[in-house]
Write a structure and sequence with these properties.
The protein is α+β, with helices and mostly antiparallel strands. It has six helices and eight strands. Strand 7 and strand 8 form a beta hairpin.
C-alpha cells in the first residue's frame, strides 16, 4: 500500500502508534461522525488503537492527513465488495472529521484512492454505499462519478443493533477512465 499525495492531502497507511491512535480518536469520538457511517463514536484512545490494529492495518485503509500539518482528519479505504462475488471489485469507505466537512477534502481523497484502486488492483468496478440520511456522503459520491444502482433495504447491520437501508452506487473502469 503506497502513500498518496494530493494537492492538499497526504494519505498514509495507519501505524500502530500512540500518535495515530490519538489522531483517530480526536475525530472518531464525535457523535456526528461515526453514526452517519454506521459505527459508534469511539470511547477511548485504546478503542481507536484496537480499530487501527484489527481493521485499518489488515485492510487497505489510509489515514487522511492535511499535507501542511500532517494532522489526521479522516480515513479512507478499499475493502472487498460483498455484493459482487467473483468480480474484480472493491468497495470504497471513508470518514472525515466534522471540522473538515465542506472543504472538498473527501472528494479529493476519494478521487485519489479511486485512481489507485483502478490502476493498482486493475479493478473492473468500484462500489460505495451510504445511508439515505447521509446527504454529505451522497454528494461526494456523485462528485466522484458513481452511478446510483438502488436501495438495498435493511442491507447493513449497524452498531446500535438495528438494520439500516443502503444506497448502493458503483463506477465501472471505463466510466472512471472517461472522468479523468
Amino acid at each position: 500500500m503506497k502513500e498518496i499525495f494530493t494537492e492538499r492531502l497526504h494519505l498514509t497507511p495507519w501505524k500502530d502508534s500512540k500518535e495515530d491512535a490519538e489522531g483517530l480518536y480526536l475525530y472518531a469520538k464525535d457523535p456526528d461522525v461515526g453514526p452517519r457511517a454506521g459505527w459508534k463514536p469511539h470511547e477511548s484512545v485504546e478503542e481507536s488503537t484496537e480499530i487501527i490494529r484489527e481493521i485499518f492495518i489488515p485492510n487497505d485503509v489510509w489515514a487522511i492527513r492535511e499535507k501542511d500539518t500532517e494532522k489526521i482528519i479522516g480515513s479512507i479505504g478499499l475493502e472487498n465488495d460483498r455484493r459482487r462475488e467473483g468480480v474484480n471489485s472493491k468497495e470504497l469507505g471513508y470518514s472525515l472529521a466534522k471540522e473538515s466537512w465542506g472543504k472538498g477534502y473527501m472528494t479529493e481523497a476519494a478521487m485519489a484512492v479511486m485512481d489507485y484502486g483502478f490502476s493498482e488492483f486493475g479493478l473492473t468496478v468500484m462500489a460505495i454505499c451510504t445511508s439515505p440520511e447521509n446527504k454529505r456522503s451522497q454528494r461526494v459520491i456523485e462528485k466522484c462519478g458513481f452511478k446510483y444502482e438502488g436501495c438495498q433495504r435493511r442491507g447493513y447491520h449497524i452498531y446500535d443493533d438495528t438494520d439500516r437501508d443502503n444506497l448502493v452506487y458503483s463506477i465501472l473502469r471505463e466510466e472512471w477512465e472517461g472522468c479523468k
